[in-house]
Design brief:
The complex is a heterodimer. Chain A is of the alpha+beta class. Chain A has 31 helices and 24 strands. Chain A has a nine-stranded mixed beta sheet with strand order 6-10-7-11-5-2-12-1-13. Chain A has a six-stranded mixed barrel with strand order 17-18-22-19-21-20. A four-stranded antiparallel beta sheet of chain A has the order 4-3-8-9, with no helix packed on it. The model of chain B has no long low-confidence stretch (mean pLDDT 84). The chains are: A alpha+beta, B alpha/beta. Chain A binds chain B through residues 402, 405-408, 499-500, 502-503, 506-508, 510-511, 784, 786-787, 790-791, 793-797, 800, 878-880, 883, and chain B through 50, 54, 59-61, 78-81, 83, 85, 87, 91-97, 100, 103-105, 107-113, 116, 136, 138-139, 152.
């Protein structure tokens, strides 16, 4: 026991570098694995939480005409606890009429909903107040615009088969979730959703029954009732599991109320959309985080493999004193134990710090995450044992010190080199990449309505093969290059090694296997750092573009045609902190019978206030498309679907119906089709139109703009209150900033906050690069201390000794750095291409984080310089002492 | 004829710290080495032979007394060039061939590579090892490696050769052969050779024998 303690003490005193390096490597591995897992679980839970908080009504239970309401209510309560339940009446109206401003406006068919006075309290997100009272007769914004009515005006409801009735408008509201409110419940999955009605009125429950009970008796098909339910959100954390759970709950309810109603499962639909994102997130976390963990493992194993010679000497001493291999390994296991326990302590502390300061969300300490953390610690311990014991066991098999450090190469090439495995893998990478790039490949498949979602991991073959093939090719290149290209190497080393360049080149060439290992480790670390940094920067930039696309600009003001924010344009322009302002018309136009959003812009200047991505337009050139629009005042850009439906060709005339100021009625306006628009700031995902604002204003007689896009010089969020103050007098005007939108949009994966993982990875990548360059170089040089001591004994001057050390350091740094950078760029490019489904719109090019790459390069150079100077310093210790020790 | 001494050591001593204990490896040694000297330093293991040679070769610094090299210059000028060292253990650089190891002192003396190579090859040929010029140290036998070390020590034509038990790890015939090589090769009358050994046969072939025991040098 006493001897064991002395042995441990000896390890700590005489092998501090190797010991600390190995502890660091194990700690990094544990931290990366533990953080990765907890981030993954926590982000999934956050996604679920965020997604369900966004759903205005969880279930819409459509009651059959013969349903027993009490029984259905009981069945709901029996299926799941709920926090809110409201009955809503849906009645079809043949149309609405209003006489205002000396004109009479008539709409097409519409819907009249009957709600209780408590409905808006229980489901506050469903109806957004714009103007007037919050109770009474409420008119949807679009209907109010069509009828040109405001609070106090009278609207006539044309009932089906009955005389019309008149109601007085109490307020104007917006229906942000109209699609789900008016969904066709029970529609088979896969059918195109029905567009919500253009004309909607809300009426108090009692009054609704007075008006429509009689209509229900003569035309029961035109009047239905629904229960709107918010269930208790005790759901599994993972979106996929939550989806399955909610889906099964609804099935259970339908079975209980069989024949009395069917469930419109908005909650499941929302989770359905998010679970694909969750799978994407899992893929991203794995693909971005795992290479770091693998690299940390490799680094630790390399550190463990250093000091082989001393290990062998120790073992030889123990063996000559009668110790068996098992006893030798028992002693060596002490080092593994120190490394393992040290690694777990440091890794645990790092994981805590990481979770505390780097995570963008609160880390959930539930059973799953705790198991994950425990698993990471176990993996760390295993790695410690492997890194130390494997080397010890391997060494125990050698007979002599010389054998263990043999430089004589086997004339046989490794099997993989003989069969050109590296070329085959690289070929596979490029082939898969070409297939992915040329087809609409989706990595994550989560078919709507189908519980099973899948990730096509096969898509990751391209970046993985590039990484693996690149590494194998680099091994072939450097091993053979160093062994056979000594003349070329000598030429490169001339400036450093001068007349020693041939000898230094020969020395390096004979250590080609050892040096190649160092080069490859640096290349792996650099490629991990570069690919992660480029991917993350591109991802973040794209996330911003996505948010800008949704919000419109840094700050956006949206209002109504009756109170347009365009009237405040001059005041907003004058606010401090405004970089650019662009007004935009937002109205509605009929394309045939289809009502679409139409945006009127100034094509020459719209790009000043918001990003005009090439991806927004067919042809991939925003500049050309907008110039074309500017040249054609009557030009219009339409959605691909519209072009296809109407068989449009460039220059074709397209007749749209827009509402005119003169009579508030829709009239034909001639446009010329000039191109296809895929996305546009503030525009919906489906069909919409973009035209010249001046032309729309001139044709309709309505000049003021409903949207203002603002580019700010500072923090957009801080700018919002100033704009709110300016537009406070405009009813219904809403001011939003890009940051808040970025936080809340969850329809796209770019809303997944990768910042925590990004920060963690980027910091760790620097540490790994420093470890791979500095630490591995230092340990490698330390292995050759005897050579340097001999050189010193022969009278080598500092610069001559430096020639040997610098040549090795620079070869590893530059060789690994160049290959790592190339691989990193390649992998990032492939990753972005493979994950194109993540981006909306897809990025046009990679975004290079020059600042980070500079920091990375400086860190790598600095750690190399420190390692080289450290070794030079060690080599200048009294040579006799060194030779005696070694 | 009076020669300026190569080494002039006065009351030089060297102590080492081993843990908390101070070990006196060499006590107040006073001696001179002049051109043409062939000195054997004999004594048991741990008596201070190596320490004496290390101090003479400028590889170590005395903790007391002084040592100067009047005919060779400053300590910094000793290696490479003026002093050639042969160590007890194989001291070849493992990643260089025999030829490259031999040419190394010449290159360190800023000799042109081509000239250094020719001279190194000549040195190897002189000791009959031209055929192993391209072999790595790990491919050589112990005797061959030590002969290469001798060739390396001689390659820069030093004025003082210090050999620290060069045959200590070799069998007797190999040791004798190596010593023959050493004596035959440096030839020049000006060169001084100091050999630390406890082989009486080898010591008997030298002109002078110095005895050292417990760090005390005795010149008879």
């Amino acid at each position: 026991m006493n001897f064991m303690i002395r042995w441990i003490k000896g390890i700590v005193i005489y092998r501090p570098g190797r010991l600390l390096g190995a502890i660091g490597g194990v700690a990094l591995t544990i931290t990366l694995l533990a953080s990765l897992g907890t981030f993954l679980f926590s982000s999934s839970a956050t996604m679920t939480e965020r997604a369900i908080s966004d759903v205005p009504v969880d279930w819409q239970v459509l009651l059959s005409s013969s349903a027993d309401e009490g029984m259905v209510k009981e069945a709901i309560a029996g299926t799941t606890p709920y926090t809110a339940l409201e009955k809503v009446g849906y009645a079809d109206a043949a149309g609405f009429t209003a006489a205002t401003g000396g004109t009479v406006q008539t709409t097409g068919p519409g819907k009249v909903l009957g709600i209780s006075s408590e409905y808006r309290v229980h489901f506050p997100r469903e109806i957004r107040q714009l103007t007037g009272a919050s109770q009474g007769i409420l008119v949807a914004q679009q209907t109010a615009a069509n009828l040109h009515v405001k609070e106090g005006d009278t609207v006539t409801i044309k009932r089906t088969g009955l005389p019309p009735v008149q109601v007085t408008v109490g307020g104007v509201v917006d229906l942000p979730y109209a699609d789900s409110v008016f969904q066709s419940i029970g529609m088979p999955a896969g059918m195109a959703p029905k567009a919500p009605p253009d004309n909607v009125l809300f009426i108090p429950e009692g009054q609704w029954h007075q008006i429509f009970d009689s209509q229900a008796r003569i035309r029961p098909d035109t009047v239905r009732e629904q229960f709107h339910v918010r269930i208790a959100h005790n759901l599994p954390a993972d979106p996929s599991s939550a989806y399955t759970f909610v889906h099964q709950l609804a099935n259970n309810l339908e079975a209980r109320i069989s024949g009395s109603g069917i469930v419109g499962n908005n909650l499941a639909a929302r989770l359905d959309a998010v679970r694909a994102d969750a799978l994407y997130a899992r893929v991203l976390f794995l693909f971005l985080g795992l290479p770091g963990a693998i690299l940390a493992v490799l680094l630790t194993l390399s550190i463990g493999a250093s000091g082989k010679k001393h290990l062998l000497q120790e073992q030889a001493l123990l063996r000559t004193r009668g110790a068996s291999v098992a006893t030798v390994l028992k002693f060596e296991s002490m080092e593994a134990l120190i490394v393992g326990i040290g690694g777990i302590i440091v890794g645990g502390a790092l994981t805590y710090v990481t979770g505390k300061f780097l995570a963008p969300f609160s880390i959930l300490l539930n059973t799953a995450t705790l198991w994950w953390i425990a698993g990471a610690a176990g993996a760390g311990l295993l790695l410690a044992i492997l890194s130390v014991m494997y080397t010890a066991w391997k060494q125990a098999r050698y007979f002599t010190v010389t054998a263990s450090r043999s430089l004589v190469r086997s004339p046989e090439k490794p099997f993989w080199q003989k069969i050109y495995l590296d070329y085959i893998i690289l070929g596979t990478a490029f082939f898969v990449y070409w297939r992915i790039a040329s087809t609409g490949y989706q990595v994550v498949l989560a078919p709507e309505g189908v519980p099973q979602a899948s990730v096509h991991y096969v898509a990751f073959i391209a970046p993985f093969c590039l990484w693996l093939g690149g590494v194998l090719f680099a091994i072939r290149f450097w091993e053979n290059g160093l062994a056979h290209g000594q003349r070329i190497l000598s030429g490169f080393l001339g400036p450093i090694a001068k007349n020693l360049s041939n000898v230094v080149a020969s020395s390096l060439g004979r250590q080609s296997i050892l040096l190649t290992r160092g080069i490859i480790l640096v290349a792996l670390a650099v490629s991990f750092a570069v690919s992660t940094a480029i991917f993350n920067t591109t991802y973040n930039a794209q996330s911003r573009i996505d948010a800008e696309l949704t919000n419109g600009a840094d700050v956006t003001v949206k209002g109504t045609t009756t109170a347009p924010p365009g009237s405040k344009l001059a005041e907003i322009k004058g606010l401090p902190g405004v970089a650019a302002v662009q007004p935009m018309i937002h109205r509605f136009a009929y394309v045939g019978n289809d009502l679409q959003d139409i945006y009127g812009i100034d094509p020459k200047h719209i790009g000043e206030a918001t990003n005009m991505s090439n991806a927004y337009f067919e042809g991939g050139n925003a500049g050309v498309t907008l110039s074309l629009l500017a040249k054609h005042p009557d030009g219009v850009l339409v959605a691909e679907e519209t072009r296809r439906d109407f068989q449009l060709h460039q220059g074709d005339q397209l007749n749209l119906r827009l509402q005119f100021a003169s009579d508030h009625k829709y009239h034909l306006v001639q446009f010329k089709f000039i191109g296809v628009v895929r996305e546009f700031p503030t525009a919906p995902k489906d069909s919409f139109l973009v035209a010249n604002a001046a032309y729309i204003a001139q044709q309709t007689g309505i000049k003021d703009e409903e949207i203002i896009l603002i580019r700010t010089t500072g923090n957009p969020a801080g700018f919002v209150p100033r704009v709110q103050e300016v537009v406070s007098s405009l009813p219904g005007a809403k001011v939003t900033d890009i940051g808040s939108v970025q936080k809340t949009i969850s329809s796209s994966l770019t809303s997944v906050n990768l910042h925590g993982l990004t920060r963690l990875e980027l910091i760790f990548a620097v540490l790994l690069v420093m470890g791979a360059t500095g630490l591995i170089l230092a340990l490698g040089l330390n292995e050759r201390r005897r050579n340097f001591a001999i050189l010193d004994a022969l009278g080598a001057k500092s610069s001559q000794l430096g020639a040997f050390i610098w040549s090795e350091g620079l070869l590893i740094l530059i060789g690994g750095g160049v290959i790592g950078t190339l691989l990193g760029f390649g992998v990032a490019q492939m990753l972005v291409k493979v994950l194109k489904g993540v981006f909306d719109p897809p990025p046009e090019h990679l975004i290079i984080p020059w600042n980070y790459l500079t920091v990375l390069a400086v860190a790598a150079v600095a750690s190399t310089v420190i390692a080289v100077f450290g070794m030079k310093r060690i080599s200048h210790r009294p040579v006799v002492e060194e030779l005696r020790k070694l | 004829m009076m020669y300026e001494p190569y080494v002039d050591m006065k009351n030089a001593g060297r102590t080492y710290l081993q843990g908390k204990t101070t070990v006196e490896a060499l006590e107040s040694a006073t001696c001179q080495v002049v051109p043409g000297d062939r000195i054997a330093v004999v004594g048991p293991s741990g008596s201070g032979k190596s320490t004496l040679l290390h101090l003479m070769g400028g590889l170590d610094t005395p903790t007391k007394g002084s040592i100067i090299w009047p005919a060779l210059g400053r300590k910094e000028d000793l290696r490479p060039g003026n002093v050639g060292f042969v160590f007890q253990t194989v001291s070849l650089i493992s990643s260089l061939t025999a030829l490259e190891n031999v040419e190394l002192p010449l290159l360190l003396s800023l000799e042109k590579p081509a000239k250094a190579r020719t001279a190194a090859l000549g040195a190897l040929n002189n000791i009959g090892l031209g055929h192993i010029a391209d072999k790595l140290p790990e491919e050589l036998s112990g005797g061959q490696a030590q002969r290469v070390a001798v060739a390396r020590a001689l390659s820069s034509r030093p004025k003082l050769i210090l050999a620290d038990e060069p045959t200590g790890q070799l069998d007797h015939p190999t040791a004798q052969h190596l010593f023959d090589v050493l004596l035959d090769s440096f030839g020049s009358l000006d060169t001084a050779l100091i050999v630390a050994t406890h082989d009486p046969v080898i010591a008997g072939r030298m002109n002078t024998v110095w005895h050292i025991e417990h760090g005390r040098l005795e010149i008879r």
